[in-house]
Amino acid sequence: MLFTATASIQPVFNKVIITSGPTLEPIDPIRFISNRSSGKTGFHLANEARKRGIAQIVFITGPTCFLPSEVNLIQVETARDMQAAINEHFTQADVVIMAAAVCDYSSAEYFPNKLKKNNDPLTLKMVKTPDILAELGRNKKKNQILVGFAAETENILLNAKNKLSNKNLDLLVLNEISLSNPAFGSEENQVFLLRPDGIKKMNKMDKARVAALVWDEIRDLSGQL
Ligand code: C5P
Fold first, then answer.
1. Nearest to 222 by CA among 171, 172, 174
2. Which of 19, 76, 160, 210 sits between 20 and 30 A of 132, alpha carbons compared?
C-alpha cells in the first residue's frame, strides 16, 4: 500500500498569529488616520493556513470586510489594541505573520468633541505608535518564525533588507507600490520574498497564490518538512 504524506495531514505548526487590515487611529469621534489596506492578503494567508491543517489560527485584524471563517477572530482598531491582542498569544505561537498595515503615527491628543472647522489651517501633533513587529523581533525565541510585510515606493530592496535585519525577521514580503503594481485593493500583486539568505522576485499573481507561496517559504524556513 502507498502512503502519501501531505502538509494537511501532518501539520508542522500548531498555533499561528496572522494580522491583517489597516489600523485606525482616532483624532476625534468623527475623524481618524489610517493606512491603505484591503485586508485581502491576510484573508488569503488565513485560508491557506486552514487548508494546511493548522489547528489554531489567531486572526487579529483592523477594520476590513475580509474576515476568514474557522479562525479565532479578534477585531481591533488601533495599533495599541493590536499589540495587546498579539501579546496575549505570542509566547505560544509558532509563526507570526504581520500582514497588517499598522499606522506608524497616531494623533498625540484625542479630542473628545468634534474639531469644528474654521478658516485657519489645522496643525495636528503626531506621535509614533509602538513598532509591534520590531518588539516581537526582539522577544522571539529560536523556534518562532516571524514574517513582516513592507510597502515601499523607492530604494525598495535597500529599505526592505534593512527592515529584515533591523526587525530580526525570518521573512519579509516586499510590495513595490507603483502605477504598474498598485497592490492595495487589487486582486493581483507582484512581491519580493526576502530571507536573510537571499531574495526572490516573484511574478505578478493573484493574492491567494502569493499567500500559498508565503506559507511554502515559512514551511521551508522551519526545516521540518
Ligand atoms: O517599518 P514598517 O512600518 O514599514 O514595517 C512594516 C511591517 O511592520 C509590517 O509587517 C507591519 O505589520 C509592521 N508594523 C508594526 N508596527 C508598526 C508599524 C508597522 O508591526 N507600528
1. 171
2. 210
12: CA distance to ligand 1 center in Å?
A: 26
Q: What is the Cα Rg of the chain in Å?
A: 18
Q: Is the pTM of this model over 0.85?
A: yes
Tens digits of residue pLDDT in 16-30 = 999 999 999 999 999
Q: Which atom of ligand 1 is nearest to the CA of 100?
A: 12
Ligand 1 is surrounded, with C-beta below 6 A, by: 79, 98, 100, 102, 104, 129, 131-133, 148-150, 163
Question: Phi-psi region for residue 89, left (φ > 0), alpha (ψ -120 to 50) or beta?
Answer: alpha
> 95-98 and 105-107: which strand pairing?
unpaired
- The domains located in the chain, with CATH, are 15-104+124-222 (3.40.50.10300)
